[in-house]
């Protein structure tokens, strides 16, 4: 009876509104989903076991990354630096630290990653299958450059057959400059003040690509029709037939970089984590207080989200100017 009374008297969680970001003061964020005011309650923090595992993972990864950077800096050639960074399974004098950059792609990915059909397949079967659309009006949905390059009649013919699809990263068009020195320091020279990294003369930014695909009903697969990386009036339209092999791979890599960031920041962080936060707060304030049976189920499906969101705002999403 005492436990029940204490649960019922548990303080409700408060909502908070997002303030404007210092780098984009003119962008109003008050319309975003509400967030939790302050740190999450004890019912939503990580378990002691998970905290210990997290601490060990952070500690070993931090030590391993420091060792990897030392090996890269001391490498005698680019090939040796690449090997030290990406291919060693373990690092350290006794090989006790797992290399966090040791990537072993699945055999299928290793054999097919350069194919256009596999690149296109990722927009349905990859980590961010929410961007691709079937074209209905190519003159308005695609760029003027793409329409002029392939011809209005050809694109309309593909549209009428439901064979023209596209992806357009419009949200990235306004994010042209990255003012942060976010790339690894070994990739920069040491000509800056006191031998440190030199200021970026040309800061990095993400392209805002537009990708056009064609669907082959007989093969049941997509192919890449063309890619436009920039949003300028004279932007080039890249195709497999007008690019060298390495240039075409580099263009597709730029699209993948844009798609990855849209996935991490919009589809995953925004539309999944942050969008669910006010609902989790409401569940806590209502079902938990009323000891509703549904809370037993919903608590397990939302257990770590408030903690992850709060931690993300304090770390990953807290970068200032």
From TrEMBL:
Alphabetical keyword list: Dioxygenase, Metal-binding, Oxidoreductase
Q: Which InterPro entries match?
A: LipOase, LipOase_C, LipOase_C_sf
Molecular function terms from GO: metal ion binding; oxidoreductase activity, acting on single donors with incorporation of molecular oxygen, incorporation of two atoms of oxygen
Q: Which Pfam families match?
A: Lipoxygenase
Statement: the UniProt record of this protein carries the keyword Metal-binding:
yes
Extract one GO BP annotation from the record: lipid oxidation
UniProt-listed PANTHER family: LIPOXYGENASE
| Name recorded for this polypeptide | Lipoxygenase domain-containing protein
């Amino acid at each position: 009876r005492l436990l029940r009374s204490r649960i019922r008297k548990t303080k409700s969680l408060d909502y908070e509104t997002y303030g404007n970001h210092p780098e984009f003061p003119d962008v109003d964020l008050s319309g975003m989903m509400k967030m939790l005011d302050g740190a999450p309650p004890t019912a939503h923090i990580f378990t002691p076991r998970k905290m210990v595992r997290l601490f060990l993972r952070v500690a070993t990864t931090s030590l391993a990354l420091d060792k990897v950077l030392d090996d890269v800096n001391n490498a005698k050639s680019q090939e040796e630096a690449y090997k030290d960074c990406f291919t060693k399974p373990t690092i350290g004098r006794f090989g006790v630290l797992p290399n966090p950059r040791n990537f072993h792609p699945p055999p299928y990915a290793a054999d097919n990653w350069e194919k256009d059909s596999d690149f296109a397949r990722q927009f349905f079967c990859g980590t961010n299958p929410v961007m691709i659309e079937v074209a209905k009006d190519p003159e308005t949905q695609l760029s003027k450059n793409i329409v002029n390059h392939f011809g209005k009649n050809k694109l309309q013919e593909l549209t009428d057959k439901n064979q023209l699809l596209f992806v357009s990263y419009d949200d990235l068009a306004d994010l042209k400059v990255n003012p942060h020195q976010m790339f690894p320091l070994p990739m920069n020279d040491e000509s800056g003040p006191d031998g440190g990294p030199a200021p970026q003369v040309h800061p990095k930014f993400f392209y805002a690509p537009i990708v056009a695909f064609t669907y082959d009903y007989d093969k049941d697969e997509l192919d890449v029709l063309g890619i436009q990386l920039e949003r300028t009036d004279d932007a080039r339209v890249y195709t497999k037939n007008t690019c060298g092999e390495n240039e075409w791979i580099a263009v597709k890599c730029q699209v993948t970089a844009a798609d990855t960031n849209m996935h991490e920041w919009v589809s995953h962080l925004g539309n999944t984590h942050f969008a669910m936060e006010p609902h989790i707060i409401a569940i806590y304030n209502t079902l938990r207080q009323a000891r509703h049976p549904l809370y037993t189920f919903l608590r397990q499906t939302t257990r770590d989200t408030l903690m992850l969101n709060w931690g993300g705002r304090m770390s990953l999403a807290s970068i200032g100017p």
